[in-house]
Amino acid sequence: MEVRKIKDLCQLKDSNLFEVIAQGLKLIYENAKCIIEDSIFLKQNKRNQGSEILENLGNEEAAKFLILLDAIRCNRKNNKPDFNRQLGYFNNHLARNIYTHYCGTRPADFREVREFIERARME
Known about the structure:
Blueprint: H1 14-44, H2 48-73, H3 80-88, H4 93-102, H5 110-122
Helix pairs in contact: 1-2, 2-3, 2-4, 4-5
């Protein structure tokens, strides 16, 4: 998966799409892990401001993983706009931040999911 080519994914056939997404997920995981490890290193060395910045960046990078998983769940045949919209979240700081905060929740139903996201968007 090439950097900054996220929107090109909508042009791929399913067989190629899944292969490219799998490669991208691996790269995202490795990058997020490296950033978080650096954040931990800074925290251990009493560099709290830098640690917090890198922690937030690492969490946003990890959110890209979840965004791609949600994109794969979209029905590409009958609902292509949803797939394209989901891919757009990949480079959207607000969307990644919402994913970052949402992943620690345990909603009981879809109503709670919607309410959480609406509150986060307003903030």
